[in-house]
Write a structure and sequence with these properties.
Blueprint lengths: L2 H24 L4 E2 L2 H6 L3 E10 L3 H12 L6 E10 L4 E10 L1
Parallel strand pairs: 1-3
Antiparallel strand pairs: 2-4, 3-4
């Protein structure tokens, strides 16, 4: 009986890894830059959006990158706005730039 929960756990882990790598591959079209780099490259800010996740900071950033991939931008920055494990709130801001 122990084999079924282990099989289910490994299946879930495998699917979550596949999801992570597919998102990483999608986001490769966008280049991550800092605010200073965006200024140096004379990039224009085209959009900014805030993402909140109650589980994890990385998940909030992942949601932001999924949104960024749907926009017409060449570069992006991610800023942590709130990291509160006590209140279970993780909020990031994603800023998009273009040439």
């Amino acid at each position: 009986m122990k084999a079924k929960p282990m099989l289910l756990a490994s299946l879930i882990l495998g699917l979550s890894c596949l999801s992570f790598y597919s998102t990483s591959a999608e986001s490769s079209a966008l280049q991550k830059v800092s605010y200073a780099e965006a200024q140096e490259m004379n990039l224009s800010k085209v959009a900014q959006k805030t993402f909140l996740n109650r589980l994890d900071l990385d998940l909030a950033e992942k949601e932001g990158l999924e949104w960024a991939n749907t926009q017409n931008a060449s570069h992006y920055s991610v800023y942590t706005l709130e990291r509160s494990s006590k209140r279970e709130r993780y909020r990031v801001s994603v800023v998009l730039y273009t040439n």
